[in-house]
Structure formats: structure tokens, C-alpha cells
Amino acid sequence: MTKGALVLIAFLAMMAHCAQAFSPVLQQRRHQAATPASALLSSSGEDNTPVHHTAIKTRDIEMAIKFYSLLDFEVETKFLAGNVRAAWLQQKASGASGVRIELIEIPSSMLNEPDGRRRRAIDLVQRPELLGLNHYAIDVTNSMNRKNMKQLEQWVEHLNKKSKDTFGKTLRVAVEPFEQMIGQNLYQLAFIYDADGAIIELIYLQRKFTQKMISGWYV
Questions:
Q1: Rounded Cα gap, residues 206 and 189, in angstroms
Q2: pLDDT of 130-141, one tens digit each?
Q3: How far apart are the C-alpha atoms of 26 and 188, rounded to whole Å?
Q4: pLDDT tens track for 166-204
Q5: Does the pLDDT at position 11 exceed 50?
Q6: Strand 73-81 and strand 100-105: pairing?
Q7: Is the distance from CB of 64 to CB of 85 less than 8 angstroms?
Q8: Which tens digit of pLDDT belongs to each residue from 34-83?
Q9: Contact at 8 Å (CB) between 74 and 90?
Q10: Quick check: 156 and 202 in contact, CB under 8 A?
Q11: 102 DSSP β-pair partners
């Protein structure tokens, strides 16, 4: 059995043990006054399944919370996933149905960082052959318009200054800003690393065209 499989089994066992320990507390809370889930259904009556959150593993959840505050995320709630610290973060202006991420702190006992080695996420910019979830994107168009910025490079520089002024940390840029046509829109795109090396795309809508564009993979 591989080392990765053993770590996964240990983590799942830890989650199951903690769930059993919390069972009496959960049973008690079920009998307390609460809003029925049926009352939270959309008033439109539509049977929709919106994305609830994207989960990101971190070696230091406090540092990760600080990093994502640069992108206007604030803590919605902190909780234990098993005996692992976790938190839901939501963007301040997005509202109850807005963008939410989940941070999950990996215990130092599972990180295996010998001789002071600092473990990071796999650099997916350098490993394009890997499959699965690659990144998520933050739309900075409104933020740039409010600041009267026309180039994404300006916003990246603004974010880097904010990071250095607030935390003394320099922003790590994975891919410098570039332009790309998608559909009828011209975008400026850039990619940065979060505190643990996960990739975040920054997207700015530069211009909309009225001419109808053909959707497809044409060279």
C-alpha cells in the first residue's frame, strides 16, 4: 500500500472517530428549534443545484485567511472537520448565494516536512499534464472599474502593494497578464499563487463586441 493511501486511510479514520465523539451533541441539537430545510427553498420554485463552495487545503489556516482577505473574502464560520481546523470564507459583496471557499488545514503530523521543508501545492502551471480541478477565477472587472484601471497589470500591482503593506508578503505571480478572446468578449487574464501555491485566475472584461462569434475550437 502506498504512503498516500495510508495517509488517506488515517485521515478518514480520524474523521469517523471524531464524528462518533460528536454524535451526542448532534442528537441534542436536532431537537432544538431550527428552520426546516424546506423553508429555505428558492422562491422561484426552480429545481437548481448551485455550486456551494470550493475546498482548498492549507498548511496554515490563519495565514490562508489573511491571504484571502486581500481578495475581499471574510470568515463566514469556523468549524472542525473531524479534528482538523476548517473555515468557510465568503466574499463581502457576494451575499448569501455568492462565492464561497472552504479552507482545510492539514495537521503538521500529516505534512511530512523534514529539515524545515515547507510543503506547497503542486505547481499546476509547471505541470499542465495533470488532470482534475485546476484553478478558480476571481472576476476583478467591477473592482478595476471603480478604481478607473484599464490594465490588469495595474490591479495586480495594487494587490501586491496591499499584500506588502498589510502582511509584509510579496504576491507571487504565476502567469503575467495577457489578452484573450472568449466568445464575443475580450478579456485580460492573469494567474497568481495563494499562500500555499494553489492557482487563482484573475479575469477582467476589457471589451464586448456586438459581432456574433462562432463557438468552437477553430484554429
A1: 10
A2: 999 999 999 999
A3: 48
A4: 999 999 999 999 999 999 999 999 999 999 999 999 999
A5: no
A6: unpaired
A7: no
A8: 666 555 555 555 667 778 899 999 999 999 999 999 999 999 999 999 88
A9: yes
A10: yes
A11: 55, 88
Gyration radius of the chain's alpha carbons = 21
In sequence order, the β-bridge partners of residue 124 are none
Reading the block at residue 108, the C-alpha cell is 503538521
SS3 for 38?
Answer: helix
Written as one letter, the residue type at 195 is A
pLDDT tier at 117, thresholds 50, 70, 90? confident
Question: Measured between alpha carbons, how far is 40 from 29 in angstroms, rounded to an integer?
Answer: 19
Rounded distance between C-alpha atoms, residue 58 and residue 130, angstroms = 20
CA 145 to chain centre: 23
Residue 198: count other Cβ atoms within 10 Å of its Cβ: 22
Distance separating the N- and C-terminal Cα atoms of the chain: 45
Give start and end residues of each alpha helix (H) in the chain.
Answer: 3-30, 61-69, 108-111, 141-146, 152-167
Supply the pTM of this predicted model: 0.76
Q: Do you know the residue count of the chain?
A: 219
Q: Which has the closest alpha carbon to 198: 112, 129, 104?
A: 104
